[in-house]
Amino acid sequence: MPPTLYPTSPALPNEIWLLVFSNLAQRDRLAAARCSKHFLALIRPLVWKRLDFTASWKVVKALCTTIRRNAHIASLVEHWALTIDMQDPNLPDALTVMPLLALTLQRLTNLRVLVFTFNSGWFPIASKVLDNCTLPHLESLSTTVQPSIASFIARHPNLKSLGRCISTREDIWPMLGPGVLLENLHVVIQPLLQLLEHHAANNPSVRRLSKGCRIHLVTTDWYVYARELCALLNAADVHIGELCLESSIYGLVTIPSDVKTARIEVISFLTFNFEPDNERCCRFIEAVLAMCPCLRTLKFPGYSCQNDFDLDLILAILNRFSRTCTTLRTLITARGPTWVNGRTLITSRGPTWERQGDEWVQTHTAPTRRPDQV
């Protein structure tokens, strides 16, 4: 039986307490839950709503046992990303672990997000866990998508996100069946091209991409397929909200000048080593901008300005980029320090530059701490 929940506490209404507890770390929530039965009743749904951590086999086994024995707790779990510590010396073999996970997942009737990751040696057995599992509210699946779990995906037409990686070269899309529009896709280049071919052919038996979808393209040599990718995007009339690219090579790569698509709004270079003082690097970015003449936002999550010299470089490069792509309006970089007269004043989160008229202006630094707060 769940603990008693009162309409309010002597100090604050429950709505305020929920806002407070929802912004606490998990360990702080657990500490607060020990203070009173009222807090325990408020915090318990928050604790069980999202299980996202790596744990020893002993802890995972205890959690699974609790969920299987308590239907109320099982109904609270919406996000499952529980990872077993593979270095745990007490970890039994896969034939012991997987049946327990299978029985536990079947109890999670309100699960919306499933992160299911194992090393390559366990995956053939791990995929069997999903064979007889149906989760009616599942919207996001993050796992290695292979033909062995195609039937599981086909049983869940409400999936909006396929994360982790679709890496098979086989055309797997007919096996996955139709469903709601995909909003997020983590994929290598070949399956993406196959999906776009189905789009262009208006194949009703495969899933389709939503307008403004986010695609994480894992292939580092994606530029080799740039012509085919742009041609299929244009033919399929697919609009990509954000294209996340992984590439650490530039200078030796060329994108033909006649390869263009207006179907991409944002490009994020996840693993790209952006060097604004490197001419080969800037030429590569210019080639990407020329490929996407309607691009509005450019992201470099791995780059942060370190001093005033970097700021001057960024402004010069942005003026150069905006001549190549006249629609470019925003540049977002990683978290880093903001410098004034050589002294670090604040640590910023994701500095943003926006184009205002003919000038680029830094509009957002999101200060997070000052030197006296360290």
Automatic annotation (TrEMBL):
Origin superkingdom: Eukaryota
Ranges for domain F-box come to 12-51
Question: Residue span of the signal peptide, if any?
Answer: none
Q: Which InterPro entries match?
A: F-box-like_dom_sf, F-box_dom, LRR_dom_sf
Name recorded for this polypeptide:
F-box domain-containing protein
Q: Which organism is it from?
A: Exidia glandulosa HHB12029
